[in-house]
Write a structure and sequence with these properties.
The chain is built from 13 helices and 2 strands; from the N terminus they run H-H-H-H-H-H-H-H-H-H-H-H-H-E-E. By secondary structure, it is mostly helical. The chain has a two-stranded antiparallel ribbon with strand order 1-2.
């Protein structure tokens, strides 16, 4: 009898131990699931707060899990911030990675604009466009091109503060703009003063390529890369209008405008390709600049009648 009671107690202990083990395993599983959910929510918040990529913000759970799982399992990153930084870099890699194919379109524009110097067909096309613009213009010049050339670049820096999600924060956008402007300035001015092409109005020998058009198309391409196709179409419309007005005002030939557009697009792409280097050199990731809402905007136009000049000052507080 005593042996039976003892055996029954041992069975009871074994059952209790097994139940405890199952309960602990379930608790561990729940803990891992909870940690996984927290990690997923953290990465999603981190990506959304940076607005680096709409695809990452709306990434479904299965895709996000497949991206996170290998790294979290092998513990390749010491902290979640380090992992989030790597995720942002991967999201940007497609934009900032140099590819030869991305040189094709701007190179075609530049080559077609340079065709004037080797073929008489382009010379006759230039004269035809000039004659058409002259009959359309009569003696009514419209110099809005001197000002709207800067609108796309200004949009690249500022339209995020009007509710349009940007791929980069304001510091990185400033670096991209500075890169692109420097490259464009060197290419345009070096070509202008080495070629010495006469302007249609015979005012100077620095017609080729069009600097106004290059500035406008540089800004339009930066907007397209930063904000997507819809904003890019609007900016490219402004850039195209700038080029048309340069011919309308008898300041440039057709080929000058075409080559300027190619240089502008190329400069914007080079400016974006340089950003990963500057992130490492200047440690931009450590700045952790968030996208902040705009607090006030002040636009102050000024006009100097004596010098026949017009300017606009833009001030943004955030």
């Amino acid at each position: 009898m005593f042996i039976r009671i003892q055996f029954f107690i041992l069975l009871l202990y074994a059952a209790m131990a097994r139940a405890t083990e199952v309960r602990d395993s379930a608790a561990v599983g729940d803990s891992l699931a909870s940690e996984r959910r927290q990690q997923r929510q953290y990465i999603r918040r981190e990506v959304a707060s940076q607005f680096v990529s709409l695809e990452d913000i709306y990434m479904d759970d299965d895709t996000l899990e497949s991206v996170m799982k290998p790294r979290l399992r092998h513990r390749r990153y010491a902290t979640r911030d380090e992992y989030a930084r790597q995720l942002r870099e991967e999201a940007h890699r497609g934009v900032y990675e140099f590819k030869v194919g991305r040189l094709i379109i701007p190179s075609m524009f530049i080559a077609f604009g340079s065709w004037r110097f080797t073929d008489n067909w382009m010379v006759s096309a230039n004269e035809g466009v000039r004659s058409g613009m002259e009959s359309l213009r009569s003696n009514n010049y419209f110099h809005a091109d001197d000002y709207i050339q800067y609108l796309p670049a200004a949009a690249h820096l500022g339209i995020e503060y009007f509710g349009v999600p940007a791929r980069n924060n304001i510091v990185e956008r400033l670096f991209i703009t500075a890169n692109s402007w420097a490259v464009m300035g060197v290419l345009v001015n070096a070509t202008k003063y080495s070629v010495g092409s006469l302007r249609p109005d015979k005012s100077s020998h620095n017609s080729f390529p069009s600097g106004h058009t290059a500035t406008a198309f540089m800004g339009a391409e930066m907007v397209r890369i930063q904000y997507g196709a819809v904003a890019g179409i609007s900016s490219y419309t402004v850039a195209t209008l700038t080029g048309i007005l340069r011919m309308y005002n008898n300041r440039h030939w057709l080929n000058d405008v075409i080559a300027g557009a190619g240089i502008g697009i190329l400069s914007a792409r080079i400016g974006n390709w340089l950003l990963p280097l500057e992130r490492r050199w200047f440690k931009l990731d450590r700045l952790n600049v968030k996208h902040r809402k705009i607090e006030s905007v002040a636009i102050v136009p000024t006009c100097n009648i004596g010098q026949e000049s017009f300017a606009t000052n833009l001030s943004i507080t955030f």
